[in-house]
Amino acid sequence: MKIERILPFARTLLSQAISPGEVAVDATVGNGHDTLFLANLVGETGHVYGFDIQDEAIMNTQSKLQEKDLLHRVTLLHKGHEHVSEHVPTKVSGAIFNLGYLPGGDKAIVTTPPTTISAVKQILSLLKPEGIIVIVVYHGHPEGQEERDQLLTFVESIDQQEAHVLQYKFLNQQNNPPFIIAIEKRSP
Ligand SMILES: C[S@@+](CC[C@H](N)C(=O)[O-])C[C@H]1O[C@@H](n2cnc3c(N)ncnc32)[C@H](O)[C@@H]1O
Q1: What is the pTM of this model?
Q2: Which of 95, 99, 103, 115 fits a 20 to 30 Å CA distance from 143?
Q3: In what order do the strands lie in the sheet containing 23-26?
Q4: Atom of ligand 1 nearest to the CA of 138
């Protein structure tokens, strides 16, 4: 068996936690690749809530979903993920964050430590037992290093009775490759 690479591993974790009929969150919609992936996982009777602060991201994702006839499975919100609990009315089985800037977009628009941590806390309280939050941390840009450090400090402080917290990272790669933080809620 090969060691699974970062992006495939993020999807493996999501697909293990999310079943048809359940609810998922894409906290950073961007170009919509993960939104589409989640829309397939939740099936016809489930639902996905997707958040992004950039109009461009919402529009691109909307057309991507329309092309595949999956838009009805998704609510796209042109809002920051720090507002997640105002918009997601039900328990969640899985959520994904891809931190940093929109590939091919404005590199000055990035996720930030307080809003990311606030959204993770809110989703953690919405998670079902054995539900998962997968965070792909991009830390090649200066703001990304600060976000990585604050996020690691926060997740390391999550009570081990509440959740299992995993860091998945290749240790010998150069140039700050992305890594995963996964938070799996435990049964009460
Ligand atoms: C790395 S990109 C996401 C890539 C995406 N998963 C894909 O498949 O293309 C990060 C996205 O986070 C968005 N973002 C930044 N701050 C945000 C916030 N507070 N709430 C929601 N999205 C935010 C950016 O606009 C950007 O589109």
Answers
A1: 0.98
A2: 95
A3: 74-77, 47-51, 23-26, 92-98, 127-137, 179-185, 163-168
A4: 1
